[in-house]
């Protein structure tokens, strides 16, 4: 079997915004998580994730500890390390991973099986509870990690391990009579198998992924069949038949996002992958319908998804309460994956706009600026008292946490940020689509010609981007620049000359086809203004409110800047709003300020209700980027601000 | 022991508003509940409440069925019947009650004990779990019922039963060394024992009530002691140490309402009773602090209380979310009890205003106009989809239910409405305070002189009240009329002549002291206008919103009148609002109408967010009394309306 080390990112991030985050991942998150995986963090519940593998390898004595999906923490950590190594080699870290990989090898069964929970706790019950027990999910993360590590280092050992495991899984599941007709309760392996196919070109993996997707939701329902086999009688806890797992009906019949949001977007990602790899038109249509449903009816302005804690799930169209949202970090990360794959199906800025919104808002909000604490839930309105005292808001933590019992989000954000360079481009033969603007250098192969590219920008704080394009030799090809949906106007120049770009626009991209020569200079100036954004009036709780946005950055008001009781602030429609870069604030951000009115609390002391008799005072408000909230004193936060019209 | 049949209401309600409700209680609620208690309602889970007593009496075979507090359903039903008999004798009904009373007598133990759950299920475990198992609560309801039935009919049998039971309880609980130092997990018996004292003049009952109140919340904590006795190790499910039962600290140290709202107000009612009966100043102070906390910081505009489903409880100051409220019918009923007792401590309209708000809004909203269906939870904002699809809003039923597994609210509203006449007056020697305005006739004894009183009014639809005062012989005494807090002005006339009432005002009451003669005529004209009410700005979710109120009636918008998506309606501050009586609508109500603006949904089809670009259209809105909502097609409802300023 021929394996190419393809898909490696040659992007070197030089961007002032992202470089800091990459350093935080490298310097804090990866080392901290390694300590956590090895149970060396004081005053924290042990992870036991590495120890579980040692246990299976017979190198220590003891009991399995952790979630059924504990293995995936190790996998996601390796994947983050792999992406980090792409950016910057690190021998010491590579050595650690090599040792973990060797341990995984020793823990792997003869037949390829590798799951510490089942190997230790229930060796006889493998593949008997796909619905709940995350076996295929963990396998998927191992595969993703192995692919990333192989791409970053060229080392095959981990890839061999997961290929053997995937081969074993393919021997267990499939259409043949003796095989199980199942599919995972938590989707993940589907997208991972496509990645494995990408690096190995082994179509078995693509077919297995397709099998899992195609089989899903068929009747009689596999989850019922295996439940009967287990002699389990109690009803499933979530509403509706397996909508929680997006297994309530076949995927091609699904038009509305339902159930657990992370599972949903991981599955949609794989569906989009398969649609493009297999030219499956019906799958593409399903992806498009689901995309429109999520982004036009079920997505917060931060690109957070999942509006209820029950099931960590989607609820229903336009139901986007700010103070009850779930908006899990992992779900927004999954939305990035999905958007990225939709761009493979069709170059359309509607996908890249959401990808960008998620990257600059709902994903990185999950991590403290110093990388030491994390949000699982990224709400749009926080009142600490409510989080403390109301059971229905207890999932909304007013401060980030060090680590979680279910530690999915911290390593997920680490692998996303470390792989940021993968999301800048889509290449289709001799077309290069530029989705994201961030300082970086890279080499891209177009028809055998190496094209050096250097992008410079202060994005997201201003909209000026310069791109140096240097092919080794002159070559005709297309560079397509995304003009973000938020931009009020754009000026495109090539070598100093303005390009009349409107006729070159298609689906939000300016297609510049020309013969490119060394040191050609592309300049893009996006008009970045402060926008008051309104929500569709069917989003009940946002009527009469605006959110502030500038470029891709969504803003919020914090108590530390604006005092307590933020909902008593009313922003007049005509109030001037100013943007200003503050270098020393929150690692350098553009703040938005302006004059608003605040309802006077004085005179209300002993009254709860009274006939209208407003007293307001003028106040200066200060808004900061949503992603950076809760990096100073804890307190209230709102994204949607009452408006005075 | 001398027992007087005192406390009987001689009030005959002739009021167009309340008479209909009394008839509904008589004609539908009481007969329906009797069928329910006897398990004769098809397609409904059986109550078994009567059957449980038969079981104990040894008259049938079988098993106990129902809640641990199932007995209280029978008690509350008898109490409702008793009050109904006061209004209108009914031999058939009285006969049924007599038979039930005889059954209770046969079920009662030799020593006075009477609780079917323990008698059948756990005869050896009596008084071992006061915290959870409602033994004293059920006893309290039996006592209340017996007192009411005695007052209504003069029949002593039931009273004798509960006296014997109360004597038994007094032999079990108390300060003496051999007695248990406990008190109920669900307060109720405390206020019942005061009622029993009132009719029997037996101070043991007053002292036992006082003992329960005084003992509450002391350390070491009785609930811990009995828990240890039970060898129970699991922690109590609610936040904080027994705040759920208002037993987290001694009652005199409690300044903020916490925990289960019904338990709280039942306890505060007893505290106010004891404060006035025993002249306990420290208890009075605690009542006042708690009153101010509840009514100034934790009460919905409808007099609903309890803002979270978890624990059916208070949450914290100013936390009054409209779409998550619990606002149990029983809690507002308890607030009526408490307000009534506070008026015994001090004549102040702040108590009567809340009493009135609860009566016309948050209590009767719990019952369908025809008396056939009931709300347990009385929310201030309803979106049926959210109730159906969001687990955190599932307690908010978009339509009233026939009956409940925990059937506390339907009989509670029945007994409240049936006893409405008891809340009109407070008499203090030769002062008669008129709290409520409703058509009725009565005879009141002032210093041995019978005073005939006839009140006529169209209240709550207009503010004109006439009162005919006819003493048997001329007599000097004071009639004090409450001028409600909502009134913008009042004109008081006696025998056609305007009284300059301002100098006669004290704490919201006009004190008219004169020699009254036959057919003296008092007229009171309260200015009843439509008010836009604002909430204290610390009530986060009501900033920028108004509620409409006219007289004591709080209004709401329903989907049936105003279409879907009610939060997209904005009511301009200067829009004229009109009140109009509609005889054929909802049994005759005053509606409020006016012109508002509605955010256009057209043009938003495929968008969730966009820069501000409002399009509004003018719409006519129609508001109906909150209590009458959900008596037509089900749909959305809001009390707090967005305002355009």
What does this structure look like?
- Chains A, B: This is Glycoside hydrolase family 127 protein.
- Chains A, B: Residues 432-528 form the Non-reducing end beta-L-arabinofuranosidase-like GH127 middle domain.
- Chains A, B: It comes from Metabacillus litoralis.
- Chains A, B: InterPro entries: 6-hairpin_glycosidase_sf, Beta-AFase-like, Beta-AFase-like_GH127_C, Beta-AFase-like_GH127_cat, Beta-AFase-like_GH127_middle.
- Chain A is built from 17 helices and 23 strands.
- Chain A is an alpha+beta fold and 645 residues long.
- Chain A has three domains: 12-423, Glycosyltransferase (Alpha/alpha barrel), CATH 1.50.10.20; 425-526, Golgi alpha-mannosidase II (Immunoglobulin-like); 530-644, no CATH class.
- Chain A has a seven-stranded antiparallel β-sheet, with no helix packed on it.
- In chain A, α3 packs parallel to α16 (409-418) and α6 (135-153) runs antiparallel to α7.
- Chain A is globular and about 75 Å long.
- Chain A starts with 11 loop residues before the first strand and ends with a strand.
- At the A-B interface, α12, α15, β14 and β20 of A face α12, α15, β14 and β20 of B.
- β20 of chain A pairs antiparallel with β14 (530-535) of chain B, so a sheet runs across the interface.
Count of all domains of chain A: 3
Based on secondary structure, the structural category of chain A is alpha+beta
Poorly predicted regions of chain A are 1-5
Strand content of chain A: 15-25%
Major sheet attributes of chain A: 7 strands, antiparallel
| CATH topology tier name of the largest domain in chain A | Glycosyltransferase
Q: What is the CATH class name of the largest domain in chain A?
A: Mainly Alpha
What is the helix tally of chain A?
A: 17
Organism (chains A, B): Metabacillus litoralis
Pfam family, one (chains A, B): Beta-AFase-like_GH127_cat
Domain Non-reducing end beta-L-arabinofuranosidase-like GH127 catalytic (chains A, B): 10-421
Protein name (chains A, B): Glycoside hydrolase family 127 protein
């Amino acid at each position: 079997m021929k394996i190419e080390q393809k898909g490696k990112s040659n992007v070197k991030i030089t961007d002032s915004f992202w470089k800091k985050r990459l350093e935080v991942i490298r310097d804090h998150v990866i080392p901290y998580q390694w300590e956590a995986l090895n149970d060396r963090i004081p005053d924290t519940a042990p992870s036991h994730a590495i120890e579980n593998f040692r246990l299976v390898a017979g190198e220590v004595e003891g009991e399995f500890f952790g979630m059924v999906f504990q293995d995936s923490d190790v996998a996601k950590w390796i994947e983050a390390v792999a992406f980090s190594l792409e950016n910057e080699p690190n021998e010491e870290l590579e050595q650690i991973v090599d040792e973990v990989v060797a341990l995984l090898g020793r823990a792997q069964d003869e037949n390829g099986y590798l799951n510490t929970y089942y190997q230790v706790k229930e060796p006889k019950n493998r593949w008997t509870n796909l619905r709940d027990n995350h076996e295929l999910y963990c396998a998927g993360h191992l595969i993703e990690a192995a692919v990333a590590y192989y791409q970053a280092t060229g080392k095959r050992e981990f890839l061999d391990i997961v290929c053997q495991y995937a081969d074993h899984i393919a021997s267990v599941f499939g259409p043949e009579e003796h095989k199980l007709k199942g599919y995972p309760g938590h989707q993940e392996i589907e997208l991972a198998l496509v990645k494995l196919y990408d690096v190995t070109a082994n179509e078995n993996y693509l077919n297995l992924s397709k099998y899992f997707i195609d089989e899903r939701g068929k009747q009689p329902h596999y989850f019922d069949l295996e439940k009967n086999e287990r002699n389990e009688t109690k009803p499933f806890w979530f509403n509706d038949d397996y909508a929680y797992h997006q297994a309530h009906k076949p995927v091609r019949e699904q038009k509305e996002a339902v159930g657990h949001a992370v599972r949903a977007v991981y599955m949609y990602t794989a569906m989009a992958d398969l649609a493009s790899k297999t030219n499956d038109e019906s799958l593409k249509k399903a992806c498009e319908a689901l995309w429109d449903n999520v982004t036009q009816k079920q997505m917060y302005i931060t690109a957070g998804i999942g509006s209820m804690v029950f099931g960590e799930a989607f609820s229903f169209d336009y139901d986007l309460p700010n103070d009850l949202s779930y908006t899990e970090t992992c779900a927004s990360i999954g939305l990035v994956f999905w958007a990225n794959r939709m761009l493979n199906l069709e170059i359309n800025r509607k996908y890249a706009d959401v990808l960008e919104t998620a990257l600059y808002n709902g994903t990185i909000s999950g991590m403290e600026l110093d990388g030491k604490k994390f949000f699982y839930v990224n709400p749009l309105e926080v009142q600490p008292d409510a989080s403390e005292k109301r059971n229905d808001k207890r999932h909304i933590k007013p401060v980030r946490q060090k680590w979680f019992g279910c530690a999915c989000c911290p390593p997920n954000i680490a692998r996303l940020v470390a792989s940021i360079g993968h999301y800048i481009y889509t290449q289709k033969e001799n077309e290069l689509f530029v989705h994201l603007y961030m300082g970086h250098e890279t080499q891209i192969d177009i028809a055998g010609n190496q094209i050096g590219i250097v992008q410079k920008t202060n994005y997201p704080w201003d909209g000026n981007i310069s791109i140096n394009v240097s092919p080794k030799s002159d070559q005709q090809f297309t560079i397509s620049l995304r003009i973000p949906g938020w931009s009020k106007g754009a000026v495109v120049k090539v070598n100093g000359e303005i390009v009349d770009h409107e006729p070159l626009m298609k689906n939000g991209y300016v297609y510049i086809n020309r013969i490119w020569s060394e040191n050609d200079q592309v300049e893009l100036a996006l008009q970045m203004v402060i926008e008051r954004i309104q929500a569709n009036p069917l989003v009940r709780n946002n009527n009469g409110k605006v959110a502030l946005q500038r470029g891709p950055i969504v803003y919020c008001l914090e108590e530390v800047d604006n005092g307590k009781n933020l909902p008593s602030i009313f922003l007049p429609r005509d109030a001037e709003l100013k943007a200003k870069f503050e270098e020393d604030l929150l690692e350098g951000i553009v703040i938005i300020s302006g004059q608003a009115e605040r309802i006077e609390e004085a005179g209300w002391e002993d009254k709860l209700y009274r006939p209208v008799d407003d007293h307001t005072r003028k106040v200066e408000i200060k808004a900061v980027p949503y992603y950076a909230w809760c990096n100073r004193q804890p307190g209230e936060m709102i994204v949607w601000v009452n408006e005075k019209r």
